[in-house]
Amino acid sequence: MIVVTGATGHLGRLVVAGLKEKVPADQIVAAVRSPEKAADLGVTVRKADYNDPSSLAAALEGADKVLLISGSEVGKRVPQHTAVVEAAKQAGVSLLVYTSAPKADTSPLILAPEHKATEEAIRAAGLPYTILRNGWYNENYEQTVQQAVQTGGFIGSAGEGRTASAARADYAAAAVAVLTGEGHENKIYELSGDVAWTRAELAETIAQVAGKPVTYTDLTPEQHKAALLEAGLPEGTAGFVVALDGNTKDGLLGEVTSDLHDLIGRPTTPIADTVAEIVKSL
């Protein structure tokens, strides 16, 4: 039995759909905070709240493999993830798979510390594990693309920094490959897209797809934050966005590896394909 936590999220839904192509639906469990949102998944649904350890023990009972999709509540992830790890240990699972961040144990990436702590908790638990260090998603730029098409441009402070992104579906396919394959125990995969692009190149791509001029304006971090605050973003969110652009400028999201390509057995989805889908939906 394979249990997928966070199964009603964007990534979780794609993983469940992919698993259903490989294993019988009755062998898949969607462990979710709101079971009513999982009724359409076509698999067994169990309530699992990262903040309620007793619900996690029940959700993971009888599990052979568990995919721990990292939580979305920044600042709360370590205790939440640790509770899942403990439940997995209690269930005696044969493999715990975790969606982490690029080079989580060594990177100064703003998102890395909570992932590093989770990886440490997984190793301390003594369970066979696979760490999927997911790089950036093409879909993270959906709002950027929409704004660029509507206004003719977008801003940032990433300079010439590159992003080696791939589609969310590519990362989901990698998780499915690990959960249904062999020989992935105690391995760490650094997952990225096949091509790393700059914000200026993203602007060119949007312009080509939309058939209209699009410009990227690079600002200083201070100017960028001021513009975000003026646009109505909360202080914390604005600071986070600027920090991520700084990380991008420093090359922390730009390293290309073959791990994702190799796991899914095909090239990763180019940013242009995702941009085309977003533009088409407008």
Descriptors for this entry?
UDP-galactose 4-epimerase, domain 1; Rossmann fold; globular; 2 domains; NAD(P)-bd_dom; two-stranded parallel sheet; 282 residues; 15% strand; NmrA-type_oxidoreductase; alpha/beta; NAD(P)H dehydrogenase (Quinone); NAD(P)-bd_dom_sf
Average of per-residue pLDDT values: 97
Molecular shape: globular
Question: Numbering strands along the chain, what is their spatial order in the largest sheet?
Answer: 3-2-1-4-5-6-8
| Category from helices, strands and their pairing | alpha/beta
Termini Cα gap: 40 Å
| Quaternary organization | single chain
Helix content: 40-55%
CATH-defined topology of the largest domain:
Rossmann fold
Poorly predicted sequence stretches spanning 5 or more consecutive residues = none
Number of strands: 9
Number of helices: 11
Instruction: Tell me the domain tally.
Output: 2
Q: So, the CATH homologous superfamily of the largest domain?
A: NAD(P)-binding Rossmann-like Domain
Largest sheet: number of strands, sense, barrel closure: 7 strands, parallel
CATH architecture of the largest domain: 3-Layer(aba) Sandwich
The radius of gyration is 19 Å
Description:
By secondary structure, the protein is of the alpha/beta class. The chain is 44% helix and 15% strand. The strands form two sheets. Strands 3-2-1-4-5-6-8 form a seven-stranded parallel β-sheet, sandwiched between helices. Strand 5, helix 4 and strand 6 (129-134) form a beta-alpha-beta unit. Helix 8 packs antiparallel against helix 9. The longest helix has 15 residues, at 77-91. The radius of gyration is 19 Å and the shape is globular. The protein starts with a strand and ends with a helix. The model has no long low-confidence stretch (mean pLDDT 97).
